[in-house]
């Protein structure tokens, strides 16, 4: 068996193995005119593989630079642009750090926990009551989305009390939460819209 892991490492994997092999073939050609024609054909193929918006000259400059790089700068042709050498460091993309937040109740998410912390800082009043209701309703939606069988107003309010270290401690009779029926209808609408998008 011929595995990709046993083959030559691709210099620019986004173009695939076929382009790499075509470039290798072009480098091996002894006829300069044939090599030149081959290079332009490869550039046409590379252009078809890429989307570009903006300046066409910049786009083709990039393609010719990539072609030269894929050949390890061994492709001896008359380039229609001045080739800019790309070093290995320029090819390495920065690693996007994933936020390492500890979320106690993952089904509610980090934003709900951040809002719960905000609630703890607020003074009692209409603004805090409105935010409490908004957070509790969103928690109920999240709970239903996570596990419809776990839907329970007391559970939501117990979790809210825990997230606020007991500062917001309510009974179902103390707050007007979205009804189970409305939550179910919202979930059905979300699911049907997802199915339509897939079609």
Q: Please provide the count of β strands.
A: 0
Helix content: 55-70%
Query: What gross morphology would you assign?
Result: elongated
- Element order, helices and strands? HHHHHHHH
What does this 3D model show about the protein?
There is one protein chain. The protein is mainly alpha-helical and 199 residues long. The chain has eight helices and no strands. Helix 2 crosses helix 3, helix 5 packs antiparallel against helix 6 and helix 6 (126-146) crosses helix 7. The chain starts with 15 loop residues before the first helix and ends with a helix. The model has no long low-confidence stretch (mean pLDDT 86).
Helix-strand layout with pairing:
Layout: H1 16-28, H2 32-49, H3 56-70, H4 88-91, H5 110-121, H6 126-146, H7 153-163, H8 180-198
Helix pairs in contact: 1-2, 2-3, 5-6, 6-7
Q: Any key phrases for this structure?
A:
mainly alpha, 2 domains, 199 residues
Q: Quick gist of this model?
A:
With 199 residues, the chain is an all-alpha fold.
